[in-house]
Fold each of these.
Amino acid sequence: MDYEKLIDILEREHDLSEEQWRAVIGAQKFTGSVSGSQVSTLRDWAEVDTETDSETDIVDNTYSVVKYANDKARNIARKVFGNRIYIRGLIEISNYCRNNCYYCGIRRDNKALVRYRLTKEDIMECAKQGYGLGYRTFVLQGGEDGYYSDEVMCDIISSIKKAYPDCAVTLSLGERSRESYKRMYEAGADRYLLRHETGDKDHYQTLHPDEMSYDNRIECLWTLKEIGYQVGCGFMVGSPGQSVDHLVKDMKFIKKLEPQMVGIGPFVPHHETPFANETQGTYEQTLYMMSLIRIMLPEVLLPATTALGTINPRGREMGILAGGNVLMPNLSPVSVRKLYELYDNKICTGDESAECRNCLNSRVQRIGYEIVTDRGDAPSFVR
Ligand code: 5AD
Ligand code: FES
């Protein structure tokens, strides 16, 4: 099978048949398991000296399908976004959650967790600090916490928009009603992140208790789109039970939804969950899937996630070099950061936000990119 040809077709047509997807996605698993050269290439790069590495360090002449996809995706992102990296200030507003997803550290059955929620004043203070540091998007993320009624949320959203009219507000608050999504949009929210988690209904049910519904989740995404939000979906790479066929369905679903944003990161086990002993996703596969998404949707906003940075010290840099163009550092108050642990060993839970900002600056500069002060909307999106 000529995988390069298939990736070329993907670049040209922005889609593949199911069979072609299966071959392309399966190719990584195959090369990975025989320790293909691309895997060691990436690994070597991950370990190079942080002071001297550059984009060229991961680019050697070794052939591999992963490298081929990474290179192509990086070039596409360069064409669309130049060397500009967008940043989003992530404010984790609450770790209360009514849900019980088997993978997630803030699931309601995690009795070991100290719960917190931020007040409007706390959130405004985070935004103020973030604005000063150059953030022009604030992401309000939290568990599904009944405290944040539409009224409470609309007040917070409109206050942020009023104080910082040049900023975008992104919400990541899980499943809510159409009415609720609509009200928050009307209050000024610009974007909504809701990972679909997996494109396969049966697989979804193995990751979530029966009380959660795949159909409802997908319905929410279509509703958000219809209302006018810039929408982000996404999934975990290497979640328990995930097969190549599931990933094919992920790609098919993403293609159909045509979201403005796609968030993917490796599954990382959390010790207080039913998946505590499951295997974590690999960063090779995460990078590969990121690249395929970039090639399929050239203009999509694609973060190099904190989870990717957690499983590999250079994960976020490599995510950028594999086609990512967004970073989402933590702006939450330092006092609560450790409490928003969706998975074990999450990075940047101890730093001041200013430190994170500087740290990210130098990280992206070292690989030839720059962080910009910009809302960073999807290129062709008009509200
Ligand atoms: N590992 C990786 N990602 C996780 N998420 C939740 N739990 C984990 C985990 N253990 C992701 C989910 C969710 C997003 C907010 O975080 O995909 O949608
Ligand atoms: Fe947070 Fe580097 S990004 S410390």
Amino acid sequence: MTAPTLKTLDATATVLEARGVSKHYPLHGSVPGADRGLARLGRPAPVVHAVDDVSLSLGAGQITALVGESGSGKSTLARMLARLTTPTSGDLLLNGQVVRNTRRRRLDYPKSVQMVLQDPFASLNPIHDVYYHVSRPFKVNGMARSGADLDEKIASVLERVALTPADLFMRKYPHELSGGQRQRVAIARALAVEPRVLLADEPVSMLDVSIRLGVLNLLADLREREQLAILYITHDIASARYLADTIVVMYAGQVVESGPAVQVTDSPSHPYTQLLLSAAPDPERAEPVTLRGAGSPPSAVAPPSGCRFRLRCPYAMAICADEKPPAFPAGDGHLSACWLLKEGHKSSAALGQSITPGAAAIASAEATPHPGRRSAGSRAGEDMPGTKKRR
Ligand code: SF4
């Protein structure tokens, strides 16, 4: 039987899909001609494995959160989805059609897929006002040239991101806006071309905590009002739970777990997801963190064999070094690439008895309620670390 592919839930109307995409960057050695020398010896030139064989689908009216620590490949994947970087292998499909690398497709693609960057301070030019920034996509795409038509379109898109009254904001310069308002201008600029997909790369991480919620709620409103397919990239799994319908967890360039947001955060089945949840701030947490991180992410040039998390995993066993774990079902629409999910290894407590002393210690610690897991009687979103489900 073929193992299921580790990707997000199939949405009823998938807009953008990545199929088995990888991105490898050549590692230019300090010794000139070293790569040619390796080739003569029949050895492959070293590459940085930024993203390896990732599949992902974004559905209309859905928010998918891509979660992982720095260096896990989240932003590289987003740049491939935005076609700012060409995949080394794999396909992108827009509205079910493979995206070809022709000049026409390159010019048309940004009309469907737009990206919002992390830093609203850097993404706006300080010498131009809001009117200039938001007018550019209309002019470049021939949607409005000047005059009342352009003014009307700019006012309309500013109102869509709740920058009202629009007349007040049109002539403001970036330094006259708060961080949240700047990010709203960046989102307005992306929305001007009426895209179907919005890729938001850490859109709130540079903002003050007090204004993050407003921008997250704006994304949620855009999903509902405009049926946008949104990819929300973050290292904060608590905000992912609050906002997203689906969570995809990446580690060392690969997807390790995916599924409905509440299920992934309530019953994380991959040890790395458990580690992320353990690290999420939770003011209501009475017990100390039950699963502590150890070690650091592996080399992206020579990633470990088998499971890439095995050097940090307290449950690692022999098979984890020998074979890459396939995606095992962990619930309804919930998949996890961990050998613990293979039949016979379903309980981490049982695993703790049979594997290493370290694993046994963790397993006994897990007998206490996990900070990321709800008690059986609790309602959805009531005891999420640091936040609650938005809806
Ligand atoms: Fe740990 Fe093995 Fe699961 Fe990887 S496959 S997370 S090493 S138990």
